[in-house]
């Protein structure tokens, strides 16, 4: 096991300098502190648990996801996580993250510097610097809707594959044959899973895939993917599977602009069951994600990683919520 | 919510008769007790939690799996599960199960009659009656290496897909091109996952699948699958991926009978990392399954299902353990 004296020897400085660097003392230079942290990471030094009551700290890093109020996707995930963490005497910091910050300092260095025992990642894309660095981290990290092959990293989410299949099956039972997919970002792990689930389900029920009926957005926002609507209609789509409730809201809006009706002219499904889903016109048929319970369970999962349980994947059953945005094909 | 009086009304008997039937009293006929239980199941009656300290009982149902001593696959799964259950004041009964018993009484009726809050299934095949009944059960049930789409049922296991891929990748890095798969039972969910992982990995590294190099056993026992060895050798296999350490042990034995050497003439890999794996001649390269931790976590997962957390799937990272049963192709 790497000790403080090993870091000191490597850098040719005193043990007390290393100790100051590791514990954030103010009487050494920022440059030296960075060198100490980088060397600690390089040698695989593990910060010892402090005895003080306020030690346990974890963080939630959020990118590309809104979480300010209950109508937004991240809100209940974060509330659930915090609730469970507080029960276990953990402090939780929510950290908005962006591409630029990720280039300033490596993930491991950041986490050690802030004395975080672990993190919960929300909304990251596969191309993010921190996602790349997670392949080699030793810091317990739980990802919402993302997968990395490393025993210190676990993936939690709803079973997207089966969720998407149950939407396609439901549309097919209602007589739809030309079914379009309005997906999230191409850089998103979960978009890929939903695309694969869509292909598998279409194959299972004997329907053809038309490449003109597949579209991708930037993120999962209403504005972006809905630009595909005219193309889908031109190519004969009678139903559109949307990768989020927000995309579905954008699609409905776009369809109304073209003087068409949902579901009489075209059926729409969402994903997530955000609080807004039942208030859309028409109320949205969608897949429910148990965000509050997912958030609580994400903390349990992070505790398991911290206890060296090598969990890779934890999925929730998906539940089809039938409302009024799908009609039978005449 | 269904009450005792609803069951009584349905059967046209008194409330006290129903109560006796539900609580196993001896002064009603066996036939009446069975009718009460069947009706309770049909109506979806939920047994109320008793206040007595000894109430909490769960069971482990085992079929097609040995667990008597530490060298056998089920032993640590069961020990881990029991340890965690005892910490939480749960009593655990281990119930050997067979096809015949499953035909005598339905799963839900059995569980209600015995007042079990939930069960952990080991070694069941997809064709088993209880596996079929799990599609509609409301009893929290955790399956090792099996999947059922029902929010009261969860699957726990090692990531078989990635485990099998890492074996194929390792063999390919050692120059193997003609790689055979000696799989477990065709009725096993996990055999299917390992087969799919094998296909995907072979495709990824640009190797061809030869149907003459694929074999299935009865269960995961050494005797059955190893009958494929002469066929594999005839068809030019230089390496055999075995779906369990026991199958690998059988394969090595069979190869020695043909006066060939492992790994000089043919490389062999296992799956599980049973205690015996490192004592085989040669010591076996395999995928480690953290059976003790899987068992402990299976109980945590069952508690989550009992608390209505709709977990579908929990997978552990797989770890390649390199020993001496694989050599480079000359």
TrEMBL record, chains A, B:
The keyword Iron-sulfur does not apply. Keywords: DNA-binding, Transcription, Transcription regulation. SUPFAM superfamilies: lambda repressor-like DNA-binding domains, Periplasmic binding protein-like I. GO terms for molecular function: DNA-binding transcription factor activity; transcription cis-regulatory region binding. Coiled coil: none annotated. Residues 2-56 form the HTH lacI-type domain. Transmembrane segments: none annotated. It comes from the Bacteria. It holds the Pfam family LacI. This is Transcriptional regulator, LacI family.
